[in-house]
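Protocol step 4 of 6: structure prediction from sequence.
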Amino acid sequence: MNEKKLLVSKHPEELEKSIGYESFTTLEIALDILENTSVKELNVFGENIDEIWKEFQKLFRIIEAAGGIVSNPEGEILFIKRLGKWDLPKGKMEKGESQEESAVREIEEETGLKDVELVQFINTTYHIYVERNGEKILKCTHWFEMNFSGEDTFKPQAEEGITEVAWKKRQQIENEVFPSTFKNIKLIVKDFWNSKNL
């Protein structure tokens, strides 16, 4: 949320601030602290993590999205630049689409590549934002590992604010992308590297 971390866990974690879960109100207070104070990370903990998660979701309109980490035969990863920040290609799922179909479609639309090959699911990230009308949104993005070995037919999707599409080597990712991206993007790329023992 605003690049701040909210962790829901069974036991208290060593974060800047921790709150024991008592009721729905605990979650409202947690969000208020992250929105309106300088606290950068907050932990809500309680025994019944499934119940906490269900209650938490009631605070939001949920939007599901899908995207991918696309690798080429050289081991480079595909990034897009949107509004001056590096990002991974992703977008909202359409009605009736599976997560996998949505991930492939969004990558092809945003980058102009054709015949991206889906390998496997990596993980799901969550971020919170507030619409202009004050409505709180919880966006769940399902990430997939992808391969691409065709011709680079890059065509950044201008109507989505994308200005650049580029392959990045690991060193470029650490030096150029990580300083100018979102925490969730760093998390998912690191997850991917760990899963590959890279």
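Step 5 (inspection) to follow. The mean pLDDT is 95.
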